[in-house]
Design brief:
Elements (H helix, E strand, L loop, with lengths): L1 H9 L4 H8 L3 H8 L3 H12 L9 H10 L5 H11 L7 H15 L5
Helix pairs in contact: 1-2, 2-3, 6-7
């Protein structure tokens, strides 16, 4: 992604046009537009070593996905909130985690 954005930038594309060309959000283009290669390498290193905030809920979510493979992220999110009143993660975080979990475990998306 970074290389494609930098290539389009060097070709004289504007950010919005690059986003359309790559079929990605313009915010993603802005994120990488002025980034140097060294900064990108550092960014990759930092993001790969991040701890997963959803990891404590992995088994609960995985059990639900195995039991009901057609369950949606929204339902799982609601159940997590009901089960843990201190649960304060965003729906987006849950949805992305579930998507990655489905992919890594080979559970099809409904």
């Amino acid at each position: 992604m970074f290389a494609k954005i930098q290539e389009l930038k060097s070709m004289g594309y504007k950010k919005l046009r690059a986003a359309r060309e790559l079929n990605i959000d313009v915010k993603t283009v802005r994120k990488y537009w002025d980034m140097r290669e060294e900064e990108y390498s550092k960014y990759l290193t930092e993001t790969k070593s991040r701890s997963r905030i959803m990891e404590p809920y992995r088994e609960v979510i995985l059990d639900k996905l195995i039991e009901h493979s057609d369950i949606t992220s929204a339902l799982i999110y609601d159940r997590l909130i009901e089960a843990d009143k201190e649960f304060q993660l965003s729906y987006r975080s849950v949805r992305l985690y579930i998507s990655e979990l489905r992919e890594s475990e080979g559970i099809p998306t409904p």
